[in-house]
Sequence to fold (441 residues):
Amino acid sequence: MAEEILIKCTLNQDMLSRAPNQRVLVRLDIEPGPALQLQEDVACDICLVLDCSSSMDEPFSDTVSHITKRQGAMLAAKAVLPSLGPQDTISIVFYASQAYHIATALPASKRAEIENHIDSLSRFNGGTNFEAALTMTQQVLNSCQNLTKRVLFLTDGNANEGSAIKVESQINELTKQGVVMDCMGIGKDFNFTYMRSLSTSSNGFTELLDSPDRASNIFQNLLINTQRTVAQHVFLNLMIPAGVRDLEFYQHLPEMRYYAIKPGQDGVSRLELNIQTLRRDRRNIYILKANLDAPAQDNNQLLAEVRLDFDIPSLKLKAQRVASNVFVNYTDQNTHPLRDTSVDDLYYEAELTKLYAQFIEIKEQDWQKAVSLLQEMIARAHMLDDKERISLYQRALQILQKDKKLSNDDLNRMGQSSSCSTQQGQADITLPAANHSMIEY
Fold:
């Protein structure tokens, strides 16, 4: 049987000299095989979980004041309806101080009824209770029959009622059931960093909705992500031998994330990463950074064992597995190795996620260290020639140096910037692969 899922490995240089403590970068591309790329859209259950607290009646943003956050959320929710397939369903949960069951598994043919339910968001208000919202969401999804399920969770701020510990447990349970949860926010009180931690479990997206048009486009794209799912319960496993050290691992696409890898008692480093789903027309991209010493004699050295476990519902395949070993090559010759600069660029961009996480952790304890981290982020943005990020980080640096703190809105925009890859357009596997620039180094 042909491999349904492919793992492709690319090193940033083809040969290493026999020097100690050499840094190596590996790009891992995970994508469906040719047969799965032709799969038709799958039926999916979409659950809209929308904040209806009193603060949703505030203006959408400082620059968009002609509609409220509540009206923007309603427009975004309706934006998915024209793209629903005949077997897709929409469920709706509203939440404030309590949760409200609005609809369960309505088919696309009932568009007028769904729109009326969405319009009823204006009837409710109160506080913000994530725990109540997710309790109701779990009950609603238990009544949905499609194999592919996604929660579009929208809020304009932090929860002020319910248990954060319970919320984490609820999301982990949804993840085990194969549900992807995307977290979206409107307004200055949205806590991007916290909401991103909630979407991490299922490898969902975290989005700052800074305009009504962007909100509608994101809702539509998330529906398309769900319809084009070909693999579920996808887990990426890494095993890195003892002696390979200073490890960093990043998801570059679909959303940039940093994952720490630490060696076990046997010196071997292991990581199990829940990818959750794969799209038929997109590749996932990961970057591994490691330092290692050359062996005394061998010309090859094992850097990592990579394994992918997954189900393919359309083919009724469960517990499938594909594996690939990554080796580095050594030479005693005085040659100039070929270097793939695109892998280096991916690493420098992905590293922004780690720097931002360190910045968030330290910003209130040591503002001078926070300034240093921001300066490092600016330097990375300059290496990438990313003018948008340079401008954003320089503005944040000026505010931080002046006020010794940043607004939540500034932090949200930095967080959004650190999670979005500039390579998104190159993830479409129906297009030619990204042009890797191979040069002598």
Q: What stands out?
A: The longest strand covers residues 317-331. The chain has three domains: 5-39+230-339, 44-227, 342-424. The radius of gyration is 23 Å. Residues 44-227 form a domain with the Rossmann fold fold (CATH 3.40.50.410).
